Amino acid sequence: MSAPAKTHGLLAEFDTPADLMAAALKCRDAGYTKWDVYSPFPIHGMDDAMGLKKSLVGWFTFTGGCTGFTTGMTMIWFMNKFDYPLVVGGKPLFTPLYAFPVSYELTILLSAFGTLFGLAALCRLPKWYNPLFKNERFKRASNDKFFICIEAVDPKFGHAQETLQSAGAKIIETVED
After folding, report:
1. 167 exposure class (CB count in 10 Å sphere: 0-12, 13-18, 19+)
2. pLDDT, tens digit (0-9, with 9 covering 90-100), for 19-50
3. For site-directed labelling of 37, which of 14, 112, 138, 170 has its Cα 20 to 30 A away?
4. CATH architecture of 7-40+141-176
């Protein structure tokens, strides 16, 4: 006999983006912290309705870029000044002008890596499985329906059913792991 299924959360279906926006405002105001909305297209203002903060990805990109530029300048300085000093035509052993192409390329490379790995970390990727994918009704989230899922790990999950009903959900289902 198999083990009993563990509850992942409650999935609520809405017909219009306006209904979803109003429900997101109710969920945010009710104090839920572990929930998300699903829509077939981006909805302007949804980030504010969900109470999301600005993303940290820009800081990851900036840090990667600064690291790349500093690494490029330091690498060329060390190689030309100490590792293999070679005076050619009386030119200085180091000048930022000659180190710029390497530093520029490392800035772009490490900015891209900072963006990629920062985004992956913030999104908790790779995530190979989500229990919502088993739900037949949820497949319409990429077509014409709008959903909110409040996860069972949310501290206020006990009141989720009432909140979603008062928000005007057409259908509310329990999603099992």
Report:
1. buried
2. 999 999 999 999 999 999 999 999 999 999 99
3. 112
4. 2-Layer Sandwich (3.30)
